[in-house]
């Protein structure tokens, strides 16, 4: 029988799983399932949807008896980390026999197994085994080979992995399983989300390094490390290019960045020695199109509050309601407070590090190469071939 991976459809965070384990221990498996059923039977209607946002209110209003007791314990465990309305994913995860995390005792109570106790104690071998089973390690490998990744960038390789190892085959299930596992990694500080893009952290790289096969020479690991070093070199080259380019060309670069980010009617004003507004554009906010003005500063000095006040003062001349100040350097500590001063037009601050991230995220000033293609032998296929 094929050992499928990525089997949990509503994949939770491990913190939520632990809260569920603690809360339902001592109840029967049937009682937990009945509680989930009692919640899901209250579907509401499109005209009158059910509000599940306040468990402190709806548990006592909509549940009774043991259903209410279990739901309340789930909600009260580990500082309200799991809303009982969304406990079904944890239930599925805990009830898979191959995970061996919970078991029913002779007196019909659901309790953590010895492996489940190790999971509660963050035993690395146990957690890493679950990560491997649910595709977490594969996802970390995909992220390790990139500086920044949108979900759309990861999806083709993730779908190929699912096609080979999982029963999830549709585009919709591929997207949902990818998102839920990214969220799991974010919750564990192994991945960070920056806007619409994701980046593996040092914690994630260290965890992946321990999980890769402990061989004397691991070509796959060496390749991923080489890709990381190369990308870091290119990032520093991009930083150097920006810091030495002509100021007016820098403004044009920012204009291209705004267009890549979805701004329309982007206009780079004439070269003016970095005085006043440098770039103007329109952006869709909800159903409204607004004008935004941008001032760019190609300088290594620290930007102080007067620059923010100057840009804010220029907004009325362009009928703009917000502005953005971009620098290759840094902002003084009090700039963040001044940028969002109550009652004043908001000013977005983008320093040199954030500018690099946006350029890379939106493919401005860099080209992505798909020259590296990794081939993995499908050993499971050979195991499944039968002899006549």
CATH class of the largest domain: Alpha Beta
The helical percent reads: 40-55%
Q: Report the sheet with the most strands, covering strand number, pairing sense and barrel closure.
A: 5 strands, mixed
**How many structurally independent domains?**
3
Write up this protein:
This protein is α/β, with parallel strands linked by helices and 388 residues long. It contains 17 helices and twelve strands. The strands form four sheets. A five-stranded mixed sheet has the order 6-7-8-10-12, sandwiched between helices. β1 and β2 (110-112) form a beta hairpin. The radius of gyration is 26 Å and the shape is globular.
Write the layout of secondary structure elements.
Blueprint: H1 14-24, H2 29-40, H3 55-62, H4 65-76, H5 88-95, E1 102-104, E2 110-112, H6 114-120, H7 124-133, H8 136-144, E3 149-150, H9 151-165, H10 171-187, E4 191-194, E5 197-200, H11 202-211, H12 219-244, H13 247-260, E6 264-268, E7 279-285, E8 288-297, E9 302-303, H14 305-314, E10 322-327, E11 330-331, H15 335-339, E12 347-350, H16 352-361, H17 379-384
Parallel strand pairs: 8-10, 9-11, 10-12
Antiparallel strand pairs: 1-2, 3-5, 4-5, 6-7, 7-8
Kindly list the characteristics that best describe this protein.
388 residues; Arc Repressor Mutant, subunit A; 3 domains; 5-stranded mixed sheet; 3-stranded antiparallel sheet; globular
Quick description:
GO terms for molecular function: DNA binding; restriction endodeoxyribonuclease activity. This is Restriction endonuclease. This protein is of the alpha/beta class.
